[in-house]
Amino acid sequence: MSCPASPATAAVLGEPPGEPGDSVPSTVERILARLREDDALAQLTRFMVVGGSSTVLYALLFLALHPLGFLPAHVTATVLSSIFANELHRRLTFHAGEQVGFLAAQWQAGTVSLAGLLATSAALGWLDATTTNAPAALQIALVVAVTTFIGAVRFVALRWIFRPQVGVRG
């Protein structure tokens, strides 16, 4: 059983004083509620969480497929993790599940993903040409560095360029 904060305690904690029987939301509940908002900061935070998740998926796929060679592993892992990220961005990051269909989202975000695939493939090709047997961890780190930059461009594209037109029929 928890007791509502006294007015003095609530003021110190920066919380509104509660009435007896009121439920004061926990810090986690307040953070989650804040992350559900649609302003740029909440979207950027969700974008980074999705990006981190898809990067983990990429790394796992890349490591699993690495025996096929770095390029086939990279292309396959990029395509699959990009599809995963595009769908999560559509549904979670930008709350556009009702306005933008799966294929439209894959097409729009896929164009930026393709630029990322070309940039990361070029970076991996450069690494392969300039080093002997670069470890998979270094290859993944290089891809993460390049995709971090591409991710910033992607966020701008998805947030402001490919933003669904509410109320526009086509």
Description:
The chain has about 170 residues and is mostly helical. It has 6 helices and no strands. α4 packs antiparallel against α5 and α5 runs antiparallel to α6 (about 135-160). The radius of gyration is 21 Å and the shape is elongated. The model is unreliable at about 10-15 (pLDDT under 50).
Helix content: over 70%
Distance between the termini: 55 Å
Strand portion: under 5%
Largest sheet data: none
Give me the count of strands.
0
What pattern of helices and strands is seen along the backbone? Answer: HHHHHH
Average per-residue pLDDT, rounded, comes to 83
Number of continuous helical runs: 6
Shape: elongated
Number of domains: 2
Q: What's the Cα radius of gyration? A: 21 Å
Q: Spans with pLDDT under 50 lasting ≥5 residues? A: 8-13
Global structural class: mainly alpha
Please name the defining characteristics of this protein.
0% strand; 170 residues; 2 domains
Strand and helix map with partners:
Layout: H1 7-13, H2 27-35, H3 40-65, H4 70-93, H5 102-130, H6 136-161
Give a quick rundown of the structure.
This protein is an all-alpha fold and 170 residues long. The chain has helices at residues 7-13, 27-35, 40-65, 70-93, 102-130, 136-161. It contains six helices and no strands.
